[in-house]
Amino acid sequence: MSFSFKSYFQKLSSAIFSELQKGEHLFLNLSGDDSQFVRLNSSKVRQSGVVENYFLDFTFVLGEKEGELRKVTAQITLSMNEEHDLASLREWINQFRKELPFVPVDPYAVLPKNKTEASNHESSGKILARDEATEKLIEAWNGKDVAGFYAAGLVVRGMSNSAGLFHWFKGESFSFDFSIYTSSQKALKGGYSGASWNPENYSQIAKDSIQKLEALEKQSIKIKPGDYRVYLAPAALSDVIEQLSYGGLSELAIRQNKSAMRFLRSSEKKLSDQFTLIEDFSEGLVPRFNEEGDLSPEKSVLVQNGELKTTLINSRSAKEFNLIPNGANGEESLRSPVVLPGSLKESEILAKLGTGLYLSNLHYLNWSDEVNGRITGMTRYACFWVENGKIICPIENLRFDETIFDLLGISVVEFTDFDEYSPVTSTYYQRQIGGVRTPGVLLSKMSFTL
Amino acid sequence: MSLFQKVLSQVSDSSIEWMGFRQVREVTKTYYVRDGLPEANDRNDTHGVMVEVLVNGQFGYAATARLTEEGLHQAIQSAKTQALAASKYSVHKFTSAHRPKITTQYQSTSQKSLSSLSANDLLDEMVKISNKLKISDKIIKTGAFVRTVEMDMHFVSSNGSDASQKFSLITSDFDATAKNGNIVQTRTNSGLRGSSHQGGWEFFLKDDLWNRVNLVAEQAIELAFDSVECPSDTRDLILKPDQMMLQIHESIGHPLELDRILGDERNYAGWSFVNQKDFGKLQYGSPIMNVTFDPTPKTEFASYAFDDTGVPSTREYLIKDGLLVRGLGGVESQLRSKLDGVANMRASSWNRAPIDRMANINLEAGTSSFEDMLSGVQSGVMMESNRSWSIDDFRNKFQFGCEYGKLIENGKLTKTVRNPNYRGITVPFWTNLKKVGNAATMGEYGTPYCGKGEPNQIIRVGHTSPICLFENIEVFGGAE
Predict the structure, then answer these.
(1) Are residues B89 and B133 in the same domain?
(2) Residues of A in Cβ contact (< 8 Å) with B478
(3) Do B42 and B163 fall within a single domain?
(4) I want to staple B463 with a disulfide (CB 3.0 to 4.6 A). Which of B240, B245, B262, B306 is the partner?
């Protein structure tokens, strides 16, 4: 019988909750993955391996009444041996029992509650066998120069608290994030991800990518810094939305005047009336529960037609600012953002762009003036100069520096009538899940500086 | 006999040419106080082992937290399966010589041990800092941050390695934000987590702590209430060490990584404008530019005795008199590129395989005093403490933003400058390096947040630098 992670987490939770003393409370969060990683360079293997890592985050709270609680958070690595893992947990909790009565009260800490319904999501996938994956990944490319990263396997997320709440999320998935290169080092970015590996689909993606690469064979031209009309493909726009995720729509960040969205709240500025951003968990690709077990609404509109409708509010901000929490995570970051499409048809993009820049991807975005909403970054991969509705040639990379009030505001001409899902392929600390769904966007102007 | 020695003695698979265990236990404690109230009181205790095997000239890896004989044997088999499957498509064939025998022991030194302060004592101190930063109602937010790391690493291999390293690390910061209408300005002690060192509490509870706290608060108010926007033009630029560290990191460290030059990283962070043929030939910057890879200073954030493949680390020149002489590549990249490198194959933890990383990348002191440097500038700006960074995938076109600036007029510091930014292209920028500060102007910094690799890894790096003067640099302001 195969190992049940859910049962293991339930047993671990029950065991440690039963040992809690009066006035002690616990939140437990399990996260981790059992993954195969294959890194390719020039369609050869640079590194290949497997990683099994599961982590238990826990918040130990001392006290009876909110406003007078003391708390500490911690993470241990799980060995998946119950006796060993319980011993590690007990050792830390015993230390916290001695320490916590003397640390300052955290007025915004909360007690565990069992007010939401438990959730349970399990999905299995059809991923490549670990001893066959390398061959299958490489052979489809016929020796072309491909660099890429394959990550596949199980991902789990679980949450329980000492008030009896339990949430569970488990899924198998894969992603192959790649770039294919011309002899002059120009590249096209692509990806194949999902829960069920389909060899025909993968082979078609490889063939299409090889064909598309031909457009990059022409000599690149150097574009002078300045303002240009621009089309941002969905992958490029998803980078802008991801940048917003870092504090952009956080209630705390707005209250602290760190986020430029403060100007939307004060109505001093607005975004395009064509721009609507929602958090949408309906596809079930990421858990709706947060670290404290609160469930986000299945859909919540954050920005509607350019106006701020709501922000991401976690329990801490709710306490501090006397608001109602809406299931946001500890960082108040976007977890499942969707930008609603518009009316621009794919067949019309080049004609409506006219003369300007077609940008497939952006790179290394960062706030250059965060409180005023200005972002800098680079163009990357397949980006082209377009004249009179025709692609002329690839461009050398350009740096932009532009505010979100331009990029998502006055410069917006039209969003496309189609969207694409850009999956998160990040593996910092452990494999991440989720992604951003965005259309493309035609902009009347984007400022390039270098 | 240790668990690893025992398991090694039990493996009799002749197809395995080499096998190694790298065990890591790392305990991190993070504290953050905002506006006088505790916001983070956090511990992280991670413990596991990376198993590497060499089969058919190909390394395969398996990471596990199951630290038992059974768990390690399973990991060995998993790593072998990966190595075997990959060996048909190896980017290069390696031998056990690329995991040399090492038996060294290394330990950080601390003047004030990290265990000498309780969580309560520390949080009290941080509440005090946060409260002292609130010197006026103009300050709308204050914060104090401390993170300590105690890391034990043990490396055992089938060719006789049995070595360990114990690190004691500390990162601290405090910040104040001031608001004047829509002008919002934040000042920190040294940029984003720039105060990162190897050692103990001596790097946080320093004699000048309260002066620094007061200065940070005063400068936040100065930026919001008594400053000018950074001019937008081309002029001389003086950078303090807490900005130089990121300039060095992004435009010298990353482009010189041999794995980037070999293309390993091009699907993620990118490639490099530096080619293999550039070593020994490319004039990277002005002749007063001397840069080393130096894992030896005891207090610098990323010092160590050997890298995660067991290669002893030594100080080496990367750039000498402005000429590119050596790359940042470990034993595998050196073999593949046929170039000299350094001992820098490092992993972020037990669950990631080692790749080419920076350690401490340092700009050597020059001869100019700060006063000399300043006196020669007719029209310029001085910038300190990084707050924004971005660079292209070939490490050419960069843009940096700083927290605090000063106008330089006729050899003197005059008005305070808010939102100071500059941009440039790597080689022309370093060619415009006109003066390098003397030893009195040096600063030692680091960052815990250097991201790279697939799977992704965040690693610690250190940078020391003097104050430097660059000519004809494009500077500009914010988006107010």
Answers:
(1) yes
(2) 368-369, 372, 374
(3) yes
(4) B245
Domain coordinates of chain A in residue numbers? 5-216, 226-448
- Domain shared by B34 and B168, yes or no: yes
Find all residues with CB under 8 Å of A106, minimum gap 6, and list them: A69, A70, A71, B37, B38, B39, B41
Same domain, B220 and B257: no
B46 close contact with A: CB closer than 8 A: yes
Residues B38 and B94 occupy one common structural domain: yes
A186: contact with B, CB 8 A cutoff: no
Query: Residue-wise over A367-380: b if at least 16 C-beta within 10 A, else e?
Result: bbbbbbbbbbbbbb
CB of A426 within 8 Å of a chain B CB? The answer is yes
- Cβ-Cβ contacts under 8 Å, B67 against chain A: 79
Question: Among residues B226, B248, B279, which one ends one of the domains?
Answer: B226
Range of B233's domain? 229-476
**Is the Cβ pair B479, A372 closer than 8 Å?**
yes
Q: Does B38 share its domain with B52?
A: yes
Domain count, chain B: 2
ipTM of the complex: 0.97
DSSP for A314-381, written as a single string: -HHHHHHHT----S--TT---SSEEEPP-SB-GGGHHHHH-SEEEEEEEEEEEEEEGGGTEEEEEEEE
CATH of the domain at B106: 3.30.2290.10
Distance CA B346, CA B459 (A): 8
Of the residues B226, B260, B281, which one is the last residue of a structural domain? B226
Q: Which of B27, B28, B29, B41 to mutate to test the interface with A (most CBs of A within 10 A)?
A: B41
pLDDT in tens, chain A (450 residues): 578 999 999 999 999 999 999 999 999 999 999 999 999 999 999 999 999 999 999 999 999 999 999 999 999 999 999 999 999 999 999 999 999 999 999 999 999 998 778 899 999 899 999 999 999 999 999 999 999 999 999 999 999 999 999 999 999 999 999 999 999 999 999 999 999 999 999 999 999 999 999 999 999 999 999 999 999 999 999 999 999 998 899 999 999 999 999 999 999 999 999 999 999 999 889 999 999 999 999 999 999 999 999 999 999 999 999 999 999 999 999 999 999 999 999 999 999 999 999 999 999 999 999 999 999 999 999 999 999 999 999 999 999 999 999 999 999 999 999 999 999 999 999 999 999 999 999 999 999 999
Just give the CATH number of A5-216: 3.30.2290.10
The shortest CB-CB distance from A99 to any of B119, B182, B451 is to B119
**Stretch 219-278 of chain B: residues touching chain A, C-beta under 8 Å:** 262-264, 266-268, 270-271
